[in-house]
Every structure is written in C-alpha cells, then in structure tokens.
Amino acid sequence: MNDIKRIDTEDLDVIIPLLTRLNPSIGRPILKRRLDAMRVQGYQCVGLYEDGRLIGISGLWILVKYYVGKHIELDNVYILPEYQGKGVGTLLVESIVGYAKAIGCKASELNCYLGNAPGQKFWERQGYQKVAYHYKKKF
User: Is the Cβ–Cβ distance between 100 and 70 less than 8 Å?
Assistant: First the structure.
C-alpha cells in the first residue's frame, strides 16, 4: 500500500539516500550541508512510502513570482527505479497538486534535466508544458 506524507523538517535527512541516487555527482556531505541550509529557507518535502519504506520523494517550494503568482515548485522528484512506470509517480504528483490547490496555489512548476527524456515524457503526461530554458552559471 502506498502512503504519501510530508516529511517533518527535523527528519529530512531520511531523503539523502534518494538524493544521492538522483545526484550521483554530488557527494553526500555536500547534499547534507545544502539540505541543512534549505531547511531554513522554507523547503518542504513529501515522501512516497510503500509498507513503510521510502520509495520516492519530491521537494516542494511555495513561491510567488510575477508571471505566475502563488505556485508550488516540485524539486528533485525521484522514484526508485523498481517503482517507476507503475503509476506511483502519478499518485505523488496528484497528491502534491491537491495540496497546492488547497493552499491557494494557481500553478505548479518544475525543472527537468535536458538529458532526462523519460522524465520529460512523464511530466508531459502529467500535463506540464515546456515554457522556458533554465540557465545557470557557476562562479
């Protein structure tokens, strides 16, 4: 049985094993430091559980931007490979969208890496549209 619930801020370290799978080029200590910094910036995370085992995550940011208003941004969404393609990702997204609507969000946004073709297809099936490029510049 699948269960989706918000992970308490003090318990967020439980997501680090999944974050390391999603971001293998970033070391665990760096992910931990960044997660600690994000805790105080309003970062939230929901977990997808099967029989008590954490099998998926999605970070959440509640933001207001000029072009979209109050919205929810899904961040670092990850489902363990053995659960992908079984509908649990759709359940997770539906749960998040329901939460977003309940708190007055008017839209949802996310980033999906250019090289993640399966992820892009998933998001398009969920009704998301490509509207921009996300740029970064490291210093």
Answer: no
Handedness of CA 94, 96, 102, 108 (dihedral sign): negative
Question: How far apart (Å, rounded) are the C-alpha atoms in residues 33 and 28?
Answer: 9
Identify the band that residue 90 occupies on the pLDDT scale cut at 50, 70 and 90.
Answer: very high
The answer to whether 60 touches 41, Cβ cutoff 8 Å, is: no
Q: Is there a contact between 4 and 44 (Cβ–Cβ < 8 Å)? A: no
Q: Which of 101, 114, 107, 98 is nearest to 128 (CA)?
A: 107
Confidence (pLDDT) at 133: 87
Of residues 129, 131, 56, the one with CA closest to residue 95: 56
**Partners of 128 in the beta sheet?**
none
Closest CA to 76 of 32, 29, 23, 114: 23
pTM of the model: 0.92
Beta bridge partners of 63: 71
Q: Given a cut of 80, is residue 1 above it in pLDDT?
A: no
- Token readout for 87 is 């509908």
pLDDT band of residue 138 (cuts 50, 70, 90) is: very high
